[in-house]
Amino acid sequence: MPPLHPIVLFPGLICSDLEARLTDAYQPSTPRCGKLKGKGWFGLWTNRTWAMDPDQAACFVEQMRLVYDPVLGDYRNLPGVQTRVPGFGSARSFASKVPQHPEYCLGALRSALETLGYRDGETLFGAPYDFRYAPPMPGQASRVYSRYFRRVTRLIEDASRKNHGKPAIVLGHSYGGAVALEFVRNAPPPWRDTFIKHLFIVAPTWSGGYVRTLTSLVSGPAGLLYVPSAPQPAMRSMWWSFETSVVNLPAPVVFGRRPVVITRHRNYSAYDIADLLVTVGSAGAVRPFREREVAKMEYFKAPMVSMTCMNGVGIPTTEQLVYEEDNFDRGPEVVYGDGDDTINLISMLAFEEVVGKQPGQKERFKSIKLAKVGHSELVTNEWALKIIMDEIVELNRC
Predict the structure, then answer these.
(1) For 326, which DSSP code?
(2) Which InterPro entries match (predicted)?
């Protein structure tokens, strides 16, 4: 096989680590939460966060929160809290945060790539990100993502130079697939043509949205952020402060007026998300949702590079949430449809139609659907990994 095209991995939503540093401007709610003020960087979101005691978890919830600045139209940390994502550039800088599933977060895929001859820091690289923020569409303010995209640009350019000028394969899973897609869409066309060999997105949580994300919004992120010692109401309030909480919500152009949340007093479709935010107690998220996320729901620009989109199908996937008692602290009854257990089939098909079939893209777009392979299993299942690796091998032959 000729020299390998470098690969840059974008992991799923909760895979990247976060570190924090507390300055004098930080005003903790309790003395315990201020113990690390002025003592340098410490792990905030790591593969040990799940083991925190209740007091530590309370500080975690406080220090993870974001604030929306309506003047700048952008999110930021709490005053006095500085954060960073460690290990940028390394494919070994992110790992599963769920002890029951150590294979998550592209670990199995990384091992398969190493078997093929890829080596971390030489031909294999990682682009971890701060999962609390969402990538912007062109023209939107995002201090965090402006810096992040610049770093990814330099990473890919350096990876190409290290590998005989070969353009890079950009590969992302789940939310990482959406981040990878937005990076490529935001890049200038001449740069894309020079440095991007192929965009490979696996189960991307794109702006068409999916219904399951409403579960985290309404009832809390227990299914996403595994912090058993933190009370669920506190975790839900923290989640509402993230931009991530209002991205990937069902888009009207995809889901129409069919109810996605059903309560005793009112039903909510994709057109009623702002009202739903108020109803569940997250009125503070309405303004950023309207100012930042609504426009993304109709932004379908194709990346205009060679692209593969891989999804699982044929698995029961949340289609409607039913809260009979209007008690959002209790889990809903779920009505299921088709999808990969997370992303609805209707959203996958919409992506193919409105993005994959655009003139100039459709000739360079490939869709792969795997029956009975779930959202997370698409990068751990032996069959799915073989298909990904076959695609990588073929790309390296070209």
Answers:
(1) S
(2) AB_hydrolase_fold (IPR029058), LACT/PDAT_acylTrfase (IPR003386)
Residue positions annotated with a catalytic role? 174, 340, 375
Q: What is the mean pLDDT of the chain?
A: 96
> In this structure, which long-range contacts are made by residues 237-241, counting pairs with CB atoms below 8 Å and at least 24 apart in sequence?
237/61, 238/61, 238/64, 238/65, 240/281, 240/282, 240/284, 240/285, 241/65, 241/66, 241/67, 241/68, 241/284
Name the token pair of 194. Answer: 């020079």
Q: What is the pLDDT of residues 278-315, one digit of tens each?
A: 999 999 999 999 999 999 999 999 999 999 999 999 99
Give tens-digit pLDDT for 176-226: 999 999 999 999 999 999 999 999 999 999 999 999 999 999 988 988 899
Residue 161 token pair:
């130079």
Three-state SS at 169 = strand
Spatial separation of the C-alpha atoms in residues 209 and 247, rounded to whole Å: 8
pLDDT at 103 over 90: no
End-to-end CA distance of the chain: 10
d(CA 258, CA 294): 18
Contact of 11 with 106, CB cutoff 8 Å? yes
Question: Over the range 140-168, which residues count as b (16 or more CB within 10 Å of their CB) and which as e?
Answer: bebebbeebbeebbebbeebbeebeebbb
Q: How many CB atoms lie within 10 A of CB 301?
A: 14
Please give the Cα distance from 173 to 7 (Å, whole number). 13
User: What are 239-255's pLDDT values in tens digits?
Assistant: 999 999 999 999 999 99
- Predicted model pTM: 0.97
Neighbours of 271 (CB within 10 A): 14
